[in-house]
């Protein structure tokens, strides 16, 4: 199973190649006549788009998942979501453990990179916890959703929908089967359903905080002081982003996209809209109906995304916190960045700056190209681009109107958002020989 790892590929290259092969295979399967309800071949570019969106747990679609894809196609999609969500290396490891194959040090280091953990020790135990935790939480989510879906859809269809949406939510994918109530309607039909809203939101949050955080919570319970610095940053930043985002959405959208909702529904919609951009892609209100300020807030939350080593995308909460603390330290003329009585490594600060800069440049360039070749409003294009690279899946409705070139760009953005930024971070983190020659220092003006 791991023989391919004996090649000269780096860990990051192998992960990127693995996702690429899964996407190409998924695109091939989805293009088959058996994958569509009509029994006809689906154009490969559209199948590839869907496979990329599923594997990269994004949620942008060129076809409504329920009305276009057959049961076989939907099963391919949910399988790609599961593989992309918990990581294909986790799947390979589970098979290897099932076959009782030995997992060597090289493979353990690869798993460490894939799972987003900081230490190679205990990585196999962590993978087991990830697998057990994932299926357990998805199972609980499915049971809760089934209590609402079965009365509406019948036992078999309701159960199937509960499982599908639980996996999609936990993996932060955003794919849905609600096309039966209206194409591309997502969860708007259940905007007032407390059980559905809370279950989906909890699955998104738990899936988006990262496997390393899970491990810390399982190990130390609710003893916050015992957590690693990474876990502390993730939990605090996630909580604050949800609360601040919900408050702002409630104020900004009260008389806009929330106008037709009662008070309870407005509160739920505010929290849902605060959580889903980071980075699930479900929606309970029409995204195209968001106010200008609401759209901007959504783009900001999408850009930040979830946490490292999770099913979410974006620049990640830890990157955002490092940049924010770096700004505060710089404004106070502090030589170092301190948080929770710990000092940040300078390399981490440089890495965070590099990731954010690359994200911004790619977003701007992609927006420029798509806006130049298609007659969309700039806000629509920018929203779509950020949603793609942050693997969110929210859209103002232009996805189905993208031409061939624009679809290729969005495909590359989704793929890059899932593995490209991670690859960049790993490359930047690799130790290289320092240049012995130190060049002369000369000052320049900044700002």
Features:
single chain, 447 residues, mainly alpha, 17 helices, 2 strands
User: H/E order of the elements?
Assistant: HHHHHHHHHHHHHHEEHHH
Number of helices, counting only DSSP H or I runs of 4 residues or more: 17
Spatial strand order of the main sheet: 1-2
Structural class: mainly alpha
Helical amount: 55-70%
> Oligomer, anyone?
single chain
Distance between the termini: 53 Å
Strand proportion? under 5%
Rg is: 22 Å
Shape: globular
Q: How many individual β-strands?
A: 2
What does this structure look like?
It is a single chain. The protein is mainly alpha-helical. The chain has one domain. It contains 17 helices and two strands. A two-stranded antiparallel sheet has the order 1-2. The longest helix has 31 residues. It is globular, with a radius of gyration of 22 Å.
Topology summary:
Elements: H1 11-31, H2 44-55, H3 65-68, H4 71-86, H5 88-98, H6 105-115, H7 123-153, H8 155-170, H9 194-208, H10 211-220, H11 229-253, H12 263-275, H13 292-304, H14 317-331, E1 338-339, E2 342-343, H15 346-373, H16 378-389, H17 404-429
Antiparallel strand pairs: 1-2
